[in-house]
Amino acid sequence: MGFEIPEILKISQQMEDKLIGKKIIDITLTEHSKSIIKQGMSNLDKRQNDILNMPITKIFPKGKWIFLEFQNNNILMFGEIIGKFSYIEKEESLPLKYHISFQFEDGSALTFQSSLYAFLTVATRDEKSQHRYAGNIGPSPNESNFSLGYFLQVLSNNEKKPIKSALNIQDQISGLGNAYINDILFESGIHPKRKVSDLSQVERDNIFDSIIKIITSAIQLGGSADEFDLYGNSGKYSRIMDKNTSLCRKCGEKVIKENILGSSSYFCSKCQKL
Length: 274
Ligand SMILES: [Zn+2]
What we know:
Elements: H1 5-19, E1 24-29, H2 34-38, H3 44-47, E2 56-62, E3 65-70, E4 75-88, E5 100-104, E6 109-123, H4 125-130, H5 148-157, H6 163-166, H7 178-188, H8 201-220, E7 256-260, E8 263-267
Antiparallel strand pairs: 1-5, 2-3, 3-4, 4-6, 5-6, 7-8
Helix pairs in contact: 1-8, 7-8
This protein binds zinc ion (ZN).
């Protein structure tokens, strides 16, 4: 599990509310952060001087990423996040466990604790635009350019793929991941392994409607109940199909868990036929 668009929007907004105008004066990389650096997901060991003592001028979300821009045009990119950010006020103490902390000149801090991995990368504008993932992020379901016409075009570009993977091509549809895809496919009654070429026009329309319905609801509810915001509060969106779901809420059949394309899918074999 990790941050998908509802969680990204909430945390990005909280960062914007708290961090605009602040300067990072120090960055602590604990022992635990070494695995992220070793995996090439963070360059904060080498590039922190590019953002230190420089006011943050802009913070914005896109897909599964949050971008912090500094006055010198450098960017701190957080993306593909499985973990937890915490905002710590001046008089509060840091959490017991964290991988990386950013200290601000006013005494406040932002910490990140990884549960698996995340990108925490410093980049110039050019480096961002050339970044393998951050440089090419498609429309996400909360954006006005994510229309039915656009969605149908993405499907027709990916007819040979199973629907589960077609919904998770971040440079075409951004911000969806395994967790919300499980709920979207349940809502639309589609088995995750169905090939796009096998889907009828009605099924394609239904998937689009389900994406909008599920994501709009999750955004309004402040993201998933399984993820935390900067203040340690979880969202209020309860996942429909996850490890805690034993019976289908539509027909009562036992929910099946299966590893499909590298992550756990939860589906009902009666309501989501292959
Ligand atoms: Zn069912």
